[in-house]
Design goal:
The chain is α/β, with parallel strands linked by helices. The chain has helices spanning 33-43, 57-64, 85-90, 93-96, 115-122, 177-182, 195-204, 224-237, and strands at 2-7, 27-28, 31-32, 48-53, 73-78, 101-105, 108-110, 128-134, 142-146, 152-157, 166-174, 209-213, 218-220, 241-242, 245-246, 251-253, 256-258, 263-265, 268-270, 273-275, 280-282, 285-286, 290-292, 297-299, 302-304, 307-308, 313-315, 321-322, 325-326, 331-333. It folds into two domains: 2-221, Spore Coat Polysaccharide Biosynthesis Protein SpsA, Chain A; 238-333, UDP N-Acetylglucosamine Acyltransferase, domain 1, CATH 2.160.10.10.
């Protein structure tokens, strides 16, 4: 079997972070989401992985490389424009050949990985298998309706009146018949080849399409609040570890990961939390569900339930920073200049909350 990872989206819901970075490379619990996807596919026993890339392809290539660090082989498949998930499958036919494969959206996090799904599909004669998850509000998702035999009967994209609460989570298993499907469907009104239309084609032509109901958590990390939620869930599952330095005047409470080269001086860290490599925490409080990436500085400040990306500094804040996603090379500090005023340099689509 092979793996196919879709990593070509523009990430408009995560702007301004994604003006300068691929959304799949934004870290949760100090690991880019795309790396977690690659690990999930590898852990399921698949070592040949294709990654569909778009405008951020150079950044994806630089970060992932050949795949050697995970013990896999990576093939890059350029997509000229984001023309739909089914289009991504279509242009990947040469890479896939006649093999079965798993398709995984590169910005998804799923509890427990996909090994049980791969095992079930590998033992079956299904033509396709789709991961579904019960959700509270199906109107925001592609929704699957099942027949009396438990097979996929109908797929509806973001229905106004859902007849099911089973949402498609962005993980799919296919055999070679999917290429017939993607070559037979027409673009949707938004100009894209929809994977839901391709799966519906398989159903209409008598192919066997079964669901896989996922019982654990699943997060599409497309928005800031979703990133923070994924960060919270993953941190809760990580064991405590200390590979850095904590001085005797500091307190480390609960599940906290301190990575190599990190320093914690006269500070309190209350887990679950992670402090990245060569990051310094000075005279500060780091609260639960916080991830500080590598080469950062937090000084004379308090922060919780937040993600801070690499090479950023947070200094001398008069109030606690929370529920925040701080990008790369960012400086957040109390200004010594007078008169006292907020002085901001913000990118497009930024959000700032002030007291």
């Amino acid at each position: 079997m092979k793996g196919l990872v879709l990593s070509g989206g523009k990430g408009t819901r995560l702007r301004p972070i994604t003006y300068t970075s691929a959304k799949q490379l934004v870290p949760v619990a100090n690991k880019p989401v795309l790396f977690r996807v690659i690990e999930a596919i590898r852990d399921a026993g698949i070592s040949d992985i294709g990654i569909v890339i778009g405008d951020t392809g150079d950044e994806i290539r630089a970060a992932v490389g050949t795949g050697r660090q995970w013990g896999v082989r990576i093939t890059y498949i350029p997509q000229d424009a984001p023309l739909g998930l089914a289009h991504a499958v279509k242009i990947s036919q040469e890479f896939i050949g006649d093999e079965r494969f798993v398709m995984f959206l590169g910005d998804n996090c799923i509890q427990g990985g996909i090994s049980p799904l791969i095992e079930q599909f590998g033992k079956s004669d299904y033509n396709a298998q789709i991961v579904l998850k019960k959700v509270a509000d199906p109107r925001s998702f592609g929704v699957a309706e099942l027949d009396d035999d438990g097979r996929i009967a109908r797929l509806v994209e973001k229905p106004r009146e859902p007849r099911s609460d089973l949402a498609l989570v962005g993980i799919y298993m296919f055999d070679h018949h999917i290429f017939e499907a993607v070559n037979s469907i027409k673009p949707s009104p938004r100009g894209e080849l929809e994977i839901t239309d391709a799966i519906q084609w398989l159903v209409h032509t008598g192919r066997t399409v079964f669901p896989y109901l996922h019982e654990g958590w699943w997060i599409d990390t497309g928005k800031k609040d979703d990133m923070l939620e994924a960060n919270r869930l993953i941190l809760e599952e990580m064991p405590a570890a200390n590979f850095g330095y904590v001085d005797r005047n500091s307190q480390v409470i609960g599940k906290v990961i301190i990575e190599a080269g990190a320093e914690v001086i006269n500070s309190t860290i209350r887990g679950p939390a992670i402090i990245g490599e060569h990051t310094r925490i000075l005279n500060s409080y780091i609260g639960p569900f916080t991830s500080i990436y590598h080469h950062c500085l937090v000084e004379e400040s308090e922060i919780e339930h937040s993600i801070v990306l690499e090479h950023s500094s947070i200094r001398s804040l008069p109030h606690r920073l929370e529920d925040s996603l701080i990008g790369r090379n960012v400086e957040v500090a109390r200004s010594p200049l007078k008169p006292k005023a907020y002085r901001l340099l913000l990118g497009d689509n930024s959000t700032v909350g002030m007291l």
